[in-house]
Amino acid sequence: xxxxxxxxxxxxxPEVELMLEDNILILFNETATExxxxxxxxxxxxxxxxxxxxxxxxxxxxxxxxILFVGGKANETMKDLGHAxxxxxxxxxxxxxxxxxxxxxxxxxxxxxSKIQFRKRN
Length: 122
Known about the structure:
Blueprint: E1 2-12, H1 16-21, E2 24-29, H2 34-39, E3 41-43, E4 57-60, E5 63-70, H3 74-81, E6 84-88, E7 99-102, E8 115-120
């Protein structure tokens, strides 16, 4: 496995649990506005060293989820803002350009002690 993004979670917004009920997890780095911090998982990374592609994995602590689709703007927003909208819906397409679709089943145990990663499967 080749890890090209790794970060520590620093803050979990109060609305994240509701988003997870809909199988959605929103990431932002620490530059997010206060409004966005309400709904997002905030991390301490600044940038990403690779391109997110279908077949890669998103990892929360030791739980890996296969990436099925990457929207046309997802890599740009990860580089600029540390932002992505992760949908754990098993879909291979989305109308939302910043969305990354993953296999079903987000980990509801994400916490301010969690580590997140994007990595290539070698």
